[in-house]
Write a structure and sequence with these properties.
heterodimer, A: 155 residues, alpha+beta, Thiol Ester Dehydrase, Chain A, seven-stranded antiparallel beta sheet, 7 strands, 35% strand, B: 158 residues, five-stranded antiparallel beta sheet, 5 strands, elongated
Chain lengths: 155, 158
């Protein structure tokens, strides 16, 4: 019953999120990870590599230009899942296909799409939500696809 | 510091990547929240975390994913390119607390491990598939994953 209601979200797409890739944000991200790779923080070094400048660590796509507001797709399905009793949200996993590096100054667009919803019944019931996002840069080139899994547990 | 460039010819199936050690602690989780934009209190407020059935504040899955990406990209060198990556958060990890402004208390150290499981050429690209994982202090893999990396080939004259 709950599953049927949630399944109505499959295929729903969020409005595009516009994201700016800033040098400081890249440095802060790499610093938080504890990753001292000079490709992410040393302009002079990065210039001499094939990239010709600082790039973002794979998996970092910059910050949304404005706060991501409530919408039909991703946030909608998460709210519906919480309301239906699966309020213990955990990240389940992440996967990517990477096509191009993300560079300082890039403006990326990504539209998360709800790709699957399933109920897993073991010792406890878990709702599994999958969504995927394609990121395009300012030239219209596909830079990456991400595939994220969220788990909702009954608390 | 730049690392030595790996070439496809130098790597064989069964090759094990150098282990990367990481320590999750409260300070790092706060920095990660700010840098990634994940402000879920499950990762910094014990009272809230205790309502979530995880036994306390837990390490962000995406921070563990970022460690594994650091592990692979740091190894492959500037001329490598990671084409695919995946990881699953199978086990919960709890961060060390702080004993001073900068230093965590003694405790668990995590290890990123990985090995080459396939080596092949596809559409002219020299590729290796890796089996990777983050191991906790007890030697349990809490975050298994995979990656596909393109390495430069000596034959291409790179």
């Amino acid at each position: 019953m709950v599953l049927d209601e949630l399944k109505q979200y499959i295929g729903k797409v969020d409005p595009p999120h516009l994201r700016e890739v800033e040098k400081g944000a890249i440095r802060r991200y790499a610093d938080a990870v504890g990753d001292d790779n000079p490709l992410y923080n040393d302009e002079e070094y990065a210039k001499k590599t094939k990239y010709g400048g600082i790039i973002a660590p794979p998996g970092f796509f910059g910050w949304a230009k404005r706060p991501i507001s409530s919408s039909e797709g991703l946030i909608g399905v998460i709210e519906a899942m919480i309301e239906s009793g699966y309020a213990g949200i955990l990240d389940g996993g992440m996967a990517y296909d990477f096509y191009l590096p993300v560079r300082v100054g890039d403006t990326l667009v990504g539209s998360p799409k709800v790709s699957d919803i399933a109920l897993k019944e073991g010792k406890t019931k878990m709702m599994i939500i999958r969504f995927e996002t394609s990121y395009f840069n300012q030239n219209g080139d596909l830079v990456a696809k991400s595939y994220q899994t969220l788990i909702g547990r009954q608390l | 510091m730049a690392k030595e460039q790996k070439h496809w010819e130098d790597i064989e199936v069964g090759y094990e990547l150098p282990i990367l050690e990481k320590i999750a602690h409260s300070l790092m989780l706060v920095k990660w929240a700010g840098a990634s934009g994940d402000f879920n209190p499950h990762h910094y407020e014990t009272e809230f975390a205790m309502t979530q059935g995880t036994g306390g504040v837990i390490v962000h899955g995406l921070l563990k994913h970022a460690w594994l990406i650091q592990f692979v990209t740091g190894w492959m060198g500037d001329d490598g390119f990671m084409k695919k990556f995946s990881c699953q958060y199978r086990g919960l990890d709890l961060p060390r607390k702080m004993q001073s402004m900068n230093e965590p208390v003694d405790g668990e150290t995590w290890k990123c491990k990985g090995k080459v499981i396939k080596k092949y050429v596809e559409e002219g690209e020299h590729l290796v598939d890796l089996e990777i994982g983050l191991e906790n202090g007890k030697g349990q893999v809490t975050t298994p994953g995979t990656a596909t990396v393109m390495l430069p080939s000596r034959k291409k004259g790179k």
